[in-house]
Amino acid sequence: MTTKQQLARDRLRTALARRSAVKAADLAMELGVSVPTLHRLLQESPEPILVAGKARRTRYALRRPLRGDTADLPLYAIDETGRATLLTRLATVFPSGCWMPLRDTDWPLTEEERDGWWDGLPYPLYDMRPQGFMGRQLARGAHQSFGVPENPNLWTDDHILFALSRIGTDLPGNLILGDSACERWQQDCHRPADPWRESETPARYLEAAEAALALGLAGSSAAGEFPKFTALRELSGSLTPHVLIKFSGADASPTVTRWSDLLICEHLALDYAQRLPTVVSARSRIIAHGGRTFLEVERFDRHGRFGRSPLISLETLNAALLGKDPCDWRPLADALVAAGLLSVEDGRSIHLIWWFGRLTANTDMHLGNLSFRPDQARLSLAPVYDMLPMLYAPLAGGELPTRSFEPPLPLPRERDTWLIACQAAADFWDAVRADMRISTGFRTLVRDHGALLRAAGERV
User: Fold this and answer.
1) What's the pLDDT tens digit per position in 221-257?
2) Which fold has domain 3-62?
C-alpha cells in the first residue's frame, strides 16, 4: 500500500465521523484517492461503516454506538388487527442523527428522508417521547435504571431511543422500537389483562388516580399537563377498551371544583364539536366517584383489544415538513393542503375546529393538540381532542382568574365558517349553563356566553 493510501486509511474514520450520508466521490476527493481505492479501503476497514442506498444514491456513514451497541434497532408497526410487522430499521450515525429508511410506507417524507437520513430523531418517532404529566412519571420511574435525567425535557435523542427500545410498548400511535420492547408487547398480548368491568370501573379509576399521583405510572406518555392515566375497561358499544382518563382533585376547594367543571366542559365540547360538518371527535364520558371527576376518552389510535393505527401531531408535522413559525392551526392547515398532503375537506374542518375552539374560550390550542393519520404518503385529520375553555383554568398557584369572554370576530372571507362554528359554540355554552354536574358558580359565570355569541353572529 502506498503512503498516500495509508494516509487515506488513517483519515477514513475521521472523515466519516464529520458528516453522514456522504457520497463515495466526495469522500474519495476528501481523502485524495480514487473511488475504486476508496471502495477497497471501506471493505478493509474495521470500523462499523453503514452503506445505504443503491447506485448513485449510495451513501456512507460511520455508525454511532447507542449505549455501546452499533447494531440496528428494528422498528415494528402494529396494524388495526393487532398484527406486528417489521417496518424498517434504525441506526444511529456520526456525527449525529439517524438512518431509518421509510420508502413504501404511509409517512409523508422528503426524498432524503425516504433514503433514510435524519439530522435528529426521525419525526414518526418524535411524538413517542415522554411528555407531560405521564411523561414525567415515566421518567421518574426509569431514570435510575436507565441512567437518564429525571426530567424528560432534558433527555437527548439517544436517551429517548434507548428508553423506547426497552419500555416503549404502549405509546401514541402504532410503532414499537426495538426487539426488547416488542417482546414485552408480545408478552402482554399473550397474557392480556382483563378490561375492568363496567360495575367496577369507578372504583378502579379512583385507585388508579391515587396511584398515579403517589407513585407514577410507567405506561403511556400522552402529552399534556392534566393528571391522567390509561386503562382498559369494558363498555357496551365502545370501539376499543383502551381509554385515557383525566381526573380532578378529590376535595371541594374552588380550584378543584373549577378543574372538575372544565373536565365536564371538555366532554360537552367534544360532543358539540362533532356536530360541525365533517368533524369527528374522540368519544368521551364523565364518571364521578370518590369526590373526583373523571373524564374518560376512548383512544382513537387503538382498535379493539390489540389493534393500533399511526398518529402524528401538527407540532411534529410543522417541524418536519413545513418549518413555519408556530402559529394558529389555520395557516398550517392551508400549507398542508397547498402541498398536496391534506384534503381540502380536512383543511376546512380544521378551520371550523379552530373557530369552535376560540368561540368556546379554548386558549390552549397549541400545535400538539391537533393530530393526523398518515395515509399513502398523505395525511388525514384525526378526531378532535383536548377541547375545553382553558380561559377559565385556575392559575398556577390555584387562584381563579377574573376574566371576561370576548368572542373573536372573523375577517369577511371567513364569515361563513365562523357562523357555522358560532352556532355550535353557542349551543355548547347553553349546554354548560344547563348541566347540573357543573358548579352553580361556573354556570352563572358563563350563563350569557351563548346569547353573546348569537348576538355577535347577527352583526358579522
Assistant:
1) 444 467 899 999 999 999 999 999 999 999 999 999 9
2) Arc Repressor Mutant, subunit A (1.10.10)
